[in-house]
Amino acid sequence: MVRSFLKSFNGTRGMAAKVPEITLYFWVTKLLTTGMGEVTSDYLFEHLNPFLSAPLSVLIFMAAMVLQFYVRRYVAWIYWLVVVMVSIFGTTAADVVRVGLGIPYVISTVFFALALTAVLLLWYVKEKSLSVHSIFTQRREIFYWITVLTTFALGTAAGDMTATAMHLGYFASGLLFAALLAVPALCYWLLGLNEILAFWFAYIMTRPAGASFSDWFSAAHSQGGLGMGKGEVSLILTILIVILVVFKGGSPAPKIGLTVPGEKRTDSAAG
Fold first, then answer.
1. Which band of pLDDT confidence, cut at 50, 70 and 90, is reported for residue 137?
2. What are the extents of the domains in the chain?
3. Which residue has the higher pLDDT, 39 or 98?
Protein backbone atom coordinates (compact mmCIF):
# COMPACT_ATOMS: atom_id res chain seq x y z
CA MET A 1 0.00 0.00 0.00
CA VAL A 2 2.79 2.44 0.94
CA ARG A 3 4.68 1.64 -2.28
CA SER A 4 1.53 2.20 -4.33
CA PHE A 5 0.93 5.55 -2.62
CA LEU A 6 4.50 6.70 -3.22
CA LYS A 7 4.23 5.69 -6.86
CA SER A 8 1.07 7.74 -7.29
CA PHE A 9 2.69 10.67 -5.48
CA ASN A 10 5.37 10.70 -8.14
CA GLY A 11 2.65 11.74 -10.54
CA THR A 12 2.73 8.71 -12.80
CA ARG A 13 -0.95 7.82 -12.58
CA GLY A 14 -3.70 9.95 -14.05
CA MET A 15 -7.20 10.14 -12.61
CA ALA A 16 -10.47 11.94 -13.09
CA ALA A 17 -10.72 15.56 -11.92
CA LYS A 18 -11.60 15.64 -8.22
CA VAL A 19 -12.12 19.36 -7.70
CA PRO A 20 -15.24 21.30 -8.75
CA GLU A 21 -15.64 23.66 -11.65
CA ILE A 22 -15.27 27.29 -10.60
CA THR A 23 -18.74 28.84 -10.67
CA LEU A 24 -20.68 31.41 -8.67
CA TYR A 25 -22.00 28.61 -6.45
CA PHE A 26 -18.41 27.52 -5.78
CA TRP A 27 -17.49 30.98 -4.47
CA VAL A 28 -20.64 31.32 -2.38
CA THR A 29 -20.11 27.89 -0.80
CA LYS A 30 -16.43 28.68 -0.23
CA LEU A 31 -17.31 31.91 1.60
CA LEU A 32 -19.83 30.10 3.77
CA THR A 33 -17.29 27.41 4.71
CA THR A 34 -14.76 30.04 5.78
CA GLY A 35 -17.25 31.64 8.13
CA MET A 36 -18.53 28.32 9.41
CA GLY A 37 -15.00 27.06 10.13
CA GLU A 38 -14.10 30.22 12.01
CA VAL A 39 -17.07 30.27 14.39
CA THR A 40 -17.16 26.48 14.81
CA SER A 41 -13.50 26.40 15.83
CA ASP A 42 -14.08 29.22 18.31
CA TYR A 43 -17.22 27.54 19.65
CA LEU A 44 -15.44 24.23 20.21
CA PHE A 45 -12.52 26.01 21.85
CA GLU A 46 -14.84 27.80 24.27
CA HIS A 47 -17.19 24.90 25.13
CA LEU A 48 -14.86 21.90 24.98
CA ASN A 49 -11.53 21.23 26.59
CA PRO A 50 -8.88 22.28 23.99
CA PHE A 51 -7.08 19.01 24.67
CA LEU A 52 -10.26 17.28 23.45
CA SER A 53 -11.48 19.62 20.70
CA ALA A 54 -8.11 19.99 18.96
CA PRO A 55 -7.38 16.25 18.57
CA LEU A 56 -11.02 15.64 17.63
CA SER A 57 -10.88 18.20 14.82
CA VAL A 58 -7.59 16.72 13.62
CA LEU A 59 -9.03 13.20 13.54
CA ILE A 60 -12.13 14.25 11.58
CA PHE A 61 -9.95 16.30 9.24
CA MET A 62 -7.67 13.32 8.59
CA ALA A 63 -10.64 10.98 8.07
CA ALA A 64 -12.20 13.38 5.55
CA MET A 65 -8.88 13.74 3.74
CA VAL A 66 -8.39 9.97 3.53
CA LEU A 67 -11.90 9.66 2.08
CA GLN A 68 -11.16 12.37 -0.48
CA PHE A 69 -8.01 10.61 -1.66
CA TYR A 70 -9.74 7.24 -1.68
CA VAL A 71 -12.44 8.17 -4.18
CA ARG A 72 -11.40 8.37 -7.83
CA ARG A 73 -13.70 11.17 -8.97
CA TYR A 74 -15.25 14.40 -7.73
CA VAL A 75 -17.89 13.72 -5.07
CA ALA A 76 -19.46 16.98 -3.93
CA TRP A 77 -20.21 16.11 -0.30
CA ILE A 78 -16.77 14.58 0.28
CA TYR A 79 -14.95 17.52 -1.31
CA TRP A 80 -16.86 20.11 0.71
CA LEU A 81 -16.55 18.07 3.90
CA VAL A 82 -12.78 18.30 3.46
CA VAL A 83 -13.02 22.06 2.83
CA VAL A 84 -15.07 22.52 6.01
CA MET A 85 -12.62 20.47 8.06
CA VAL A 86 -9.68 22.33 6.52
CA SER A 87 -11.42 25.55 7.54
CA ILE A 88 -11.82 24.39 11.13
CA PHE A 89 -8.32 22.87 11.29
CA GLY A 90 -6.73 25.90 9.63
CA THR A 91 -8.39 28.20 12.15
CA THR A 92 -7.19 26.02 15.01
CA ALA A 93 -3.64 25.99 13.61
CA ALA A 94 -3.54 29.78 13.34
CA ASP A 95 -5.01 30.15 16.85
CA VAL A 96 -2.42 27.76 18.29
CA VAL A 97 0.36 29.86 16.76
CA ARG A 98 -1.10 33.05 18.24
CA VAL A 99 -2.59 31.95 21.57
CA GLY A 100 -0.62 28.83 22.37
CA LEU A 101 2.81 30.12 21.30
CA GLY A 102 2.15 33.81 21.93
CA ILE A 103 3.29 34.86 18.45
CA PRO A 104 1.88 38.25 17.32
CA TYR A 105 -0.63 38.29 14.47
CA VAL A 106 1.72 40.27 12.21
CA ILE A 107 4.46 37.67 12.51
CA SER A 108 2.09 34.71 12.07
CA THR A 109 0.53 36.39 9.01
CA VAL A 110 3.97 36.91 7.44
CA PHE A 111 4.94 33.33 8.32
CA PHE A 112 1.88 31.79 6.67
CA ALA A 113 2.28 34.12 3.65
CA LEU A 114 5.85 32.90 3.18
CA ALA A 115 4.73 29.30 3.69
CA LEU A 116 2.04 29.70 1.02
CA THR A 117 4.53 31.26 -1.38
CA ALA A 118 6.92 28.34 -0.83
CA VAL A 119 4.15 25.78 -1.44
CA LEU A 120 3.01 27.47 -4.65
CA LEU A 121 6.58 27.78 -5.94
CA LEU A 122 7.32 24.13 -5.21
CA TRP A 123 4.03 23.10 -6.85
CA TYR A 124 4.85 25.10 -9.98
CA VAL A 125 8.44 23.85 -10.18
CA LYS A 126 7.28 20.24 -9.91
CA GLU A 127 4.15 20.42 -12.09
CA LYS A 128 4.55 23.52 -14.31
CA SER A 129 0.96 24.56 -13.61
CA LEU A 130 -1.14 25.82 -10.69
CA SER A 131 -4.44 25.48 -12.51
CA VAL A 132 -7.27 23.51 -10.90
CA HIS A 133 -7.94 22.14 -14.39
CA SER A 134 -4.62 20.29 -14.29
CA ILE A 135 -5.27 18.40 -11.05
CA PHE A 136 -5.58 14.84 -12.31
CA THR A 137 -2.67 13.14 -10.53
CA GLN A 138 -2.43 12.39 -6.85
CA ARG A 139 0.69 14.49 -6.42
CA ARG A 140 -1.07 17.54 -7.82
CA GLU A 141 -4.02 16.84 -5.56
CA ILE A 142 -1.68 16.74 -2.56
CA PHE A 143 -0.19 20.09 -3.58
CA TYR A 144 -3.72 21.45 -3.99
CA TRP A 145 -4.84 20.51 -0.48
CA ILE A 146 -1.61 21.71 1.14
CA THR A 147 -2.17 25.03 -0.61
CA VAL A 148 -5.80 25.17 0.51
CA LEU A 149 -4.83 24.44 4.12
CA THR A 150 -2.15 27.14 4.07
CA THR A 151 -4.55 29.71 2.60
CA PHE A 152 -6.98 29.06 5.44
CA ALA A 153 -4.28 29.51 8.08
CA LEU A 154 -3.05 32.69 6.36
CA GLY A 155 -6.55 34.09 6.02
CA THR A 156 -7.31 33.43 9.68
CA ALA A 157 -4.14 35.15 10.85
CA ALA A 158 -4.67 38.10 8.48
CA GLY A 159 -8.30 38.55 9.53
CA ASP A 160 -7.42 38.48 13.23
CA MET A 161 -4.55 40.90 12.62
CA THR A 162 -6.76 43.55 11.00
CA ALA A 163 -9.66 43.08 13.42
CA THR A 164 -7.68 43.09 16.67
CA ALA A 165 -4.05 44.12 16.24
CA MET A 166 -4.96 46.93 13.83
CA HIS A 167 -8.19 47.69 15.75
CA LEU A 168 -10.42 47.77 12.67
CA GLY A 169 -13.05 45.52 14.21
CA TYR A 170 -14.81 42.60 12.57
CA PHE A 171 -17.17 44.54 10.32
CA ALA A 172 -14.55 46.93 8.95
CA SER A 173 -12.19 43.98 8.40
CA GLY A 174 -14.94 42.18 6.50
CA LEU A 175 -15.46 45.19 4.26
CA LEU A 176 -11.71 45.52 3.68
CA PHE A 177 -11.27 41.91 2.60
CA ALA A 178 -14.49 41.97 0.58
CA ALA A 179 -13.04 44.89 -1.38
CA LEU A 180 -9.75 43.01 -1.84
CA LEU A 181 -11.74 39.96 -2.95
CA ALA A 182 -13.40 42.04 -5.67
CA VAL A 183 -10.04 43.23 -7.05
CA PRO A 184 -8.99 40.02 -8.86
CA ALA A 185 -12.50 39.52 -10.23
CA LEU A 186 -12.59 43.03 -11.71
CA CYS A 187 -9.02 42.76 -13.01
CA TYR A 188 -9.83 39.41 -14.61
CA TRP A 189 -13.01 40.65 -16.31
CA LEU A 190 -11.82 44.14 -17.27
CA LEU A 191 -8.04 43.93 -17.62
CA GLY A 192 -7.47 40.30 -18.58
CA LEU A 193 -5.60 39.32 -15.41
CA ASN A 194 -4.15 35.81 -15.58
CA GLU A 195 -6.90 33.34 -14.64
CA ILE A 196 -4.75 31.27 -12.27
CA LEU A 197 -3.39 34.33 -10.45
CA ALA A 198 -6.90 35.78 -10.13
CA PHE A 199 -8.26 32.48 -8.78
CA TRP A 200 -5.67 31.99 -6.04
CA PHE A 201 -5.71 35.65 -4.98
CA ALA A 202 -9.49 35.53 -4.65
CA TYR A 203 -9.30 32.13 -2.93
CA ILE A 204 -6.99 33.56 -0.26
CA MET A 205 -9.22 36.61 0.29
CA THR A 206 -12.39 34.55 0.82
CA ARG A 207 -10.99 33.25 4.11
CA PRO A 208 -10.56 36.56 6.01
CA ALA A 209 -13.66 38.03 4.35
CA GLY A 210 -15.96 35.19 5.37
CA ALA A 211 -14.36 34.77 8.80
CA SER A 212 -14.57 38.50 9.61
CA PHE A 213 -18.27 38.72 8.81
CA SER A 214 -19.05 35.50 10.72
CA ASP A 215 -17.17 36.90 13.73
CA TRP A 216 -19.17 40.12 13.39
CA PHE A 217 -22.45 38.20 13.41
CA SER A 218 -21.48 35.98 16.35
CA ALA A 219 -19.44 38.29 18.61
CA ALA A 220 -21.03 40.01 21.60
CA HIS A 221 -22.15 43.64 21.36
CA SER A 222 -19.30 44.60 23.69
CA GLN A 223 -16.87 43.21 21.12
CA GLY A 224 -18.42 45.10 18.23
CA GLY A 225 -20.57 42.22 16.98
CA LEU A 226 -24.29 41.56 16.54
CA GLY A 227 -24.41 39.08 19.42
CA MET A 228 -26.03 36.18 17.55
CA GLY A 229 -23.75 33.64 19.22
CA LYS A 230 -21.13 31.33 17.75
CA GLY A 231 -23.24 28.19 18.04
CA GLU A 232 -26.21 29.77 16.30
CA VAL A 233 -24.13 31.27 13.47
CA SER A 234 -22.30 27.97 12.99
CA LEU A 235 -25.59 26.07 12.73
CA ILE A 236 -27.08 28.52 10.22
CA LEU A 237 -23.99 28.44 8.03
CA THR A 238 -23.86 24.64 8.18
CA ILE A 239 -27.47 24.39 7.00
CA LEU A 240 -26.79 26.79 4.11
CA ILE A 241 -23.69 24.83 3.08
CA VAL A 242 -25.59 21.54 3.12
CA ILE A 243 -28.36 23.03 0.97
CA LEU A 244 -25.88 24.37 -1.58
CA VAL A 245 -23.88 21.15 -1.74
CA VAL A 246 -26.98 18.97 -2.10
CA PHE A 247 -28.64 21.07 -4.78
CA LYS A 248 -25.68 22.89 -6.37
CA GLY A 249 -22.73 20.60 -5.73
CA GLY A 250 -21.43 21.31 -9.20
CA SER A 251 -19.53 19.33 -11.79
CA PRO A 252 -15.85 18.41 -11.73
CA ALA A 253 -13.44 20.87 -13.28
CA PRO A 254 -12.68 20.11 -16.94
CA LYS A 255 -9.47 18.13 -17.36
CA ILE A 256 -7.26 20.68 -19.11
CA GLY A 257 -3.53 21.12 -18.73
CA LEU A 258 -0.29 19.19 -18.62
CA THR A 259 -0.42 15.46 -19.17
CA VAL A 260 1.28 12.80 -17.10
CA PRO A 261 3.60 10.08 -18.41
CA GLY A 262 1.69 7.38 -20.25
CA GLU A 263 -1.47 9.50 -20.61
CA LYS A 264 -2.61 10.54 -24.06
CA ARG A 265 -3.06 14.28 -24.44
CA THR A 266 -6.63 15.28 -25.23
CA ASP A 267 -7.72 18.00 -27.64
CA SER A 268 -8.94 20.15 -24.76
CA ALA A 269 -5.59 19.83 -23.02
CA ALA A 270 -3.74 20.66 -26.20
CA GLY A 271 -5.68 23.88 -26.47
1. confident
2. 16-251
3. 39
